[in-house]
Design brief:
Blueprint (H helix, E strand, L loop, with lengths): L1 E8 L10 E4 L7 H21 L9 H10 L15 H13 L3 E5 L2 E3 L13 E6 L9
Parallel strand pairs: 1-5
Antiparallel strand pairs: 1-2, 3-4, 3-5
Helix pairs in contact: 1-3
Length: about 140
């Protein structure tokens, strides 16, 4: 089943959200099932991208136009060269959700619990909003 996700970091100037397609293989009944599948796919893609990094990095005109539309132009290089653990990433994701460091919306409806039952249809959109902590004085 093909779904989409969007990411938004509060405070970033880019107002456009890019829909990124992903597919799920197993049936998903709760938010936790969906997050586990998504995190697993993302970690595997991250680890595979390390192997596929070309020696000479350059951008085509099309890639440059696409990147400027979303306000971020980069060559795709990584600062961290080590392989990431799927188990550690899932543990971090679950802890971050419980600590309310990010918000998940399913077709504009907020999901508050990992055990929330989901009814997913083809081309549904999940939006992830990273919440930031404010620092400063109250007075």
């Amino acid at each position: 089943m093909r779904l989409f996700y969007q990411q938004k970091v509060i405070g970033k100037k880019s107002r456009k959200l890019q829909k990124i397609p992903f597919s799920i293989d197993e049936p998903v009944t709760t938010l936790q099932d969906l997050l586990v599948q998504l995190v697993t796919q993302q970690v595997q893609q991250f680890n595979e991208k390390m192997v596929d990094t070309p020696l000479h990095l350059y951008l085509t005109d099309q890639e440059l136009d696409d990147a400027t539309q979303y306000g971020k132009v980069h060559f795709g290089e990584k600062k961290n060269d080590s392989l990431q653990s799927v188990d550690q990433a899932m543990s971090n994701m679950l802890q971050a959700f419980q600590d309310e460091l990010f918000l998940v919306l399913h077709n504009e409806e907020p999901l508050d619990s990992l055990t929330t039952p989901l009814t997913i249809q083809e081309d549904d959109v999940f939006t992830f909003i990273k919440l930031t902590m404010l620092a400063g004085r109250i007075w």
